[in-house]
Design a protein that fits this description.
Blueprint: H1 2-14, H2 24-31, H3 37-75
Length: 76
């Protein structure tokens, strides 16, 4: 059972889809620029900022799970 969950987790980390995270106004302004260097930088920054809350919540959930599992083991 754990192997199945581990395989699914690894598969989710390996499957990556490109994300376009710009709002409509940012896209309209940045698409008019030649070279698209600024647009790519803004998009990368938005995606980076979106990842931080997920990482923090995931880390907090992991530590809570670890605390609860240690508590269960000590009561047995």
């Amino acid at each position: 059972m754990k192997v199945k969950y581990a395989a699914i987790l690894i598969l989710l980390f390996l499957v990556v889809t490109p994300a376009e995270a710009q709002c409509a106004m940012c896209r309209a302004v940045l698409e008019s620029e030649e070279g698209q260097g600024t647009a790519k930088g803004v998009n990368d920054g938005i995606v980076y900022l979106m990842m931080i809350p997920y990482i923090l919540v995931g880390g907090l959930g992991y530590f809570i799970y670890r605390m609860l599992s240690k508590k269960e083991k000590s009561t047995k």
